[in-house]
Amino acid sequence: MNKTTDEIRDAFLSFFKQKGHVIIPSSSLVPNNDPTLLFTNAGMNQFKDIFLGKKQSCHSRVVTSQHCLRTGGKHNDIENVGYTTRHHTFFEMLGNFSFNDYFKKEAIIYAWELLTSPQWFNIPKNKLWISVYTDDKESYDIWSKVIKISPNHIFKIGDINHVKYNSDNFWQMGDTGPCGFCTEIFYDCQENDIHDNDNILENKKKYLIEIWNIVFIEFNRISEKNLIPLPTKSIDTGMGLERITSILQNVFSNYKTDIFKKLIKSISKFSPVKDLNHTSFKIIADHIRACVFIIADNIIPSNEHRGYILRRIIRRALRHGHKLGIKENFFYKLVPDVIKIMSAKNKILNSKEKIIKKTLQIEEIQFTQTLDKGLKLLKKEIKNTKNNVFNGEIAFYLYDTFGFPIDLTADICNEKKIKIDYEKYKKAKENQKKKSSSINKFYKNYNESIIVNYHDTCFFQGYDQNNIQTIVKKIFIHNTEVFEINPNQKGIIFLDKTSFYGESGGQVGDIGQLYNEKSMFQVENTKKYGNTIGHIGYLISGKIIVNDHICSKINQTYRNSIQLNHTAIHLLHAALRYYLGNDVFQKGSFVNDQYLRFDFSYSNHIHLSQLQNIEKIVNMKIRDNILIKIKHLSLEEAKKKKALALFDYYNKSSVRVVFINDFSIELCGGTHTTRTGDIGYFKIISYSSIASGIKRIEAVTAEQAINYLHEKENDIQDISIILKSNSTTVKDSIKKLINKVNILEKKNDHLQKKENKYLIKQIIQQIEYIQEVKIIIQTLNKYDRQILRKIIEQLHKEIKIGIIILINIKNNNFVVMSTVSKNLTHRIQANNIIKEILKKTNGKGGGNHEIAEGGGVNIKIIPLALKYIKLWIKTKLLNTKN
After folding, report:
1. CB atoms within 10 A of CB 361
2. pLDDT given at position 749
3. What is the mean pLDDT of the chain?
4. Which residues pair with 813 in a beta bridge?
5. How confident is the model at residue 459 (pLDDT cuts 50, 70, 90)?
6. Residue range 605-617: mean pLDDT, rounded
7. Which tens digit of pLDDT belongs to each residue from 277-307?
8. What's the domain range around 673?
9. How far apart are CA 27 and CA 240, in angstroms?
């Protein structure tokens, strides 16, 4: 009987546990130690800092089954999903790791034993093939002499295009980071062996499935041409659970394994299509798994970064549901089945079911409302496509108006063998960006320019000491390591221990002084660099040299204000979950000495009354004057206490837990006040929605809260004086003022309409004819753009067929508008009229065939521009037919 997917995963973990490995749970799909990655895309991601030597592992041997997502960059599998037998967006990567313990020989022996031993996977040895890097003689010898693999079953793989280390058998996580030689194990799907040794590699390629990659991590790639040896050697292996399952279940397609068969059966209930091998079933099955796990890691759909990837996957799945003839909203209804199938080893999915379903339901409803319209337009434009190149401007219009990600449009076009004009798409997108008030960007990690390893360690002693004796370990000036720093030089000083908190977890770094009898260094910021802490600032006096003994003294007033706000954030987080429900989850925070900012997931709008109640809960806990307790617990103990954690802590033997009674229990490395009563008062000063399903609250505490209330009180007092009322009647006075303004605006509108009516009569009397076409060209003064639009709209109704050009001059600027009747646009277009006028006046504008507008400041040239446009219209009409 075939093993199930769950049994295969368990067998892998059990095997390596017997070999002295510690089983580590899968880390989040959101990597917390690599700003270059959107999602965890390999089993080694959570151990990257260990491979780089920035951190030491608690265990020298580790085994995991890591959740991974590959949808972009170097590892982009989304276009192949469903169309091949083995590509996925979400998958599980089985991996065993050695950190400065065993290396090539043991890693290869372990892999071979697990794969071929009768008590484990029992794969026939003759079905396995091996590849090694062409210069990796050590690995080749282990396979041929220790494992005794026939040389005919070992491929030596060289460099591509003769570029050193540009090889399938030189592994790297990305453009930079840990890397090294690798050896791969392949399974032969062909029933009969081939004995033609001269062409064996070419003949075998189409039958071989890569099932295991053993990477020998020994380098760090700094840039394309710069590799440096790592301080320790490590082993990183990867074997896709879905892929090995297909082989052990003897189906040779991941989509025919037990998990996918169940998912596809669930999807088929919504579709009239009976062919369960249909590609769209496979794509939906893959994508619903990915969506469930992404949302479980507290990502929600948006137009940015991780949220965009999620939205893209959802919409791609919905489009394939449309292809399967599914008429109802179905995608979110698959969630219970996914959780039932996948939750055997992921119990957290059960607690997240409600929020996952709700998130997908909202997104599905929003998108399906426009999916039909968008698909109709897309299919129409595809029919009109020439030379198999789809118009990039229309692709952007589909994205901007219907929410079609470019990938979805490309996916549909690819099926028709049509390419997208990406240059036009990018240009349209850039033009749209320029109109936006702000553009979000990914920023590189501030710390990337300085390389440190785990041997560079600074012990933080600032939880209970603000002034300590310490030793200077390193000094950097302009990112270059130096021996000393002199007056007025800016630099970064690293110590063996410090009282300064390094910026992390949303809390800003401390400020203060490093000093001794002869020298004073002003610390303006403090940041973490791996396991050490950098003190950023400038030397005021004296000279500081490496190995100097100095004092580390923080600005205690600054730290106290930060601590009040940090503890308040914990109270706010707990109050939000208490009042709004456990669907609330932290998405980010910022704490300094002036205010706090807290971002969190919540799909509904939060009303003012709700915010006030949340604020009351926080202030009630402040008045209770609760003692803040800090405990160091094992990870398992912290989980039992139901401690909340924003980041992964799986590689820590001990975690720091902040307790505010049972009301708030969180894993946190930041600094906190002693009692909640120290905060004094908590006041929410702003609430906003910063992305789809992401809310932001900003608040102040203590003296800043009092100052805020005083400012509001002063504002009310000033308004009262202006309105000649007092603070108790100011509201009534404002209402009276608004009513008065409304009455005046109505009178003004009435007068404006009368004036417009008179003006329109005057203008119509001055109609000209060119080629029997009615033409109105008029210059006006001091009209607002909105009124000008109403005038040209009314003129258009009056003349019915013709061309209208109005120019209005106001405050040394001009606005020009033009309309062309629909039945004339085949001869002349409004946007071209405006274009010609603006050419003469150096203005800017645009529009369509029927209506267009623009403006500028070159008012002196307007009379000449109008003479020119009249002649241009005459020429245009003469050269075109009715």
Report:
1. 16
2. 83
3. 87
4. 810
5. very high
6. 95
7. 999 999 999 999 999 999 998 888 887 778 8
8. 560-710
9. 16
Spatial CA neighbour of 778 closest among 800, 802, 754:
802
Question: Would the pTM count as exceeding 0.85?
Answer: no
3-state secondary structure of 858: coil
Same-domain status, 174 and 269: no
Q: Is residue 145 part of a domain?
A: yes
Answer whether residue 742 is part of any domain. Answer: no
Residues 197 and 323 both lie in one domain: no
Question: For helices 862-878 and 830-841, what crossing angle results, to 10°?
Answer: 140
- What's the pLDDT band for 437 if we cut at 50, 70, 90? very low
Q: How many domains does the chain have?
A: 5
Distance CA 616, CA 637 (A): 31
In Å, how far are 359, 360, 601, 605 from 301, measured between CA atoms? 8, 9, 11, 16
- Angle in degrees, 0-180, between the axes of helices 258-268 and 279-296, rounded to the nearest 10: 100
Q: Is 457 exposed, middle or buried (0-12, 13-18, 19+ CB in 10 A)?
A: middle
Q: Which residue did the predictor score with more confidence, 194 or 123?
A: 123
CA distance 228 to 226: 7
pLDDT of residue 197: 47
Q: Tell me, what's the pLDDT at 505?
A: 84
Question: Residues 588-609: what's their mean pLDDT?
Answer: 93
The structure tokens 């434009």 sit at 381
> Does 534 lie in the same domain as 647?
no
Q: Is there a contact between 503 and 531 (Cβ–Cβ < 8 Å)?
A: no
Domain containing residue 535: CATH number: 2.40.30.130
Residue where a domain terminates, one of 710, 725, 740: 710
Tell me: do 545 and 569 sit in the same domain.
Answer: no
Phi-psi region of 234 (alpha: psi -120 to 50; beta: other; left: phi over 0): beta
Same domain, 70 and 82: yes
1-21 confidence digits (pLDDT tens)? 478 999 999 999 999 999 999
Whether pLDDT at 470 is above 80: yes
Whether the Cβ atoms of residue 605 and residue 716 lie closer than 8 Å to each other: no
> What pLDDT shows up at residue 453?
47
Same domain, 547 and 564: no
Least confident span in 387-391, 670-674, 821-825, 842-846: 387-391
Mean pLDDT within 32-57: 76
Residue 832 lies in a domain: yes
Domain end residue (candidates: 435, 467, 490): 435
How many Å is the Cα radius of gyration of the chain?
34
Name the token pair of 703: 């003296």
| Residues 148 and 107 both lie in one domain | yes
Place of tokens 């954690």: 645
For 90, the enclosing helix (H) or strand (E) is strand 90-99
State the Cα–Cα distance between residues 757 and 388, nearest whole angstrom: 52
Nearest CA-CA partner of 798 in 752, 764, 765, 849:
764
**Helices H / strands E in the chain, number of each:** 22, 37
The pLDDT assigned to 178 comes to: 78
How deeply is 609 buried, as exposed, middle or buried, from its count of CB atoms within 10 A (0-12, 13-18, 19+)?
A: exposed
Best CA proximity match to 870, nearest among 766, 799, 738: 766
Whether residue 205 sits in one domain with residue 61: yes
Q: Tens digits of per-residue pLDDT, 400-416?
A: 777 677 777 887 888 88
**φ, ψ (nearest 5 deg) of residue 22:** -95, 130
In this model, does residue 441 exceed pLDDT 80? no
Q: Which residues lie below 8 Å from residue 67, measured CB to CB, with a gap of 6+?
A: 26, 27, 29, 40, 90, 92, 293
Q: Which DSSP string corresponds to 803-827?
A: EEEEEEEETTEEEEEEEE-GGGTTT
The DSSP bridge pattern shows strands 154-157 and 170-172 to be unpaired
